[in-house]
Amino acid sequence: MNRNASIGAAVWLAFLAVARMRWIEAEWIDLLFLLAPLVVVPLGLQLMGEMEKGVVPSTPERVARDVQLACALAVVASFLLPRGAAAGLLVAAWFVFCGMLAVGGLIRLARGAFRSFDSIFAVFAFFYLPIGAAWLTASRLGIAPLGFQEPIVLLTAVHFHYAGFAAPLLARSSRRALVGPPARSVAVALLNVLSTGVVVGPGLLAAGFVIGPRVKLAAAVVLAASEVGLAVSFISALKHVARRGPKCLIGLAAASLGFAMMLAALWAIGEYPLQPFVHLAEMARFHGTANAFGFTLCGLIGWTQAQKCWARSGGKA
User: Fold this and answer.
1) Which of the ends of the chain has fewer CB neighbours closer than 10 A, N or C?
2) Of 199, 29, 206, 9, whose CA–CA distance to 114 is shortest?
């Protein structure tokens, strides 16, 4: 892992230990969220850098990368305080960081990112982050945007950091591994449909919570189906990964995603008649853990290692 992610992982483990000793009050949802700014986001930025070797990032992106760790530590400090103005002020630093990446996404669009399907993944990942940061700010302030209460407010922040930021970058990685000469048009079209579902699904699901249960169910099914397809694409891409380490991590990520999306589908189906098969606390514990550690962390580390090997060898990882 890179320096920021390594320091972030050490801070997260220390926070976990302190929480387990009951020195501070922290729920598992809090810990799952903190993993995102401390580890997931720097790993995602590292993967993006490996995939864009030779591309000079815009000034907002460079500044954001420089201040990422400091902003993440401000988020940790916020969780040491009770909800209120002071906690909200601390996470404002993370909102600014995410805003800089969103500006970087706008600059990418101005430079023609919309002309390339491959370039759109990073743009959406950058646009989703400030939405997650806004919900994080609301959570730490203790307010209820649109009438939603905890833990939904913080879970929305979790959603946009994992499904919104990390998943599109992982979809981009598997698509790159699978789409190459010779590429069959039918296979490419299927991958593009799958990738589109992964990219737009987080926004559709969030909108469904506001619009109504039917839209929420449809969006959840689209997102779950797209991410199950993403797991299948991971497995298909393993033939392009020669080294055992990245191959094992990507395979574990695919298995974890399949399990997590099965739970998500069960939850969505049960939510429609308001007779849930899987309750929210169970979703956070099982779906959230599998998604955060199995899919996201293993996927980001595995694909980053694969990209590094491809860059060195010009061939298989």
Assistant:
1) N
2) 199
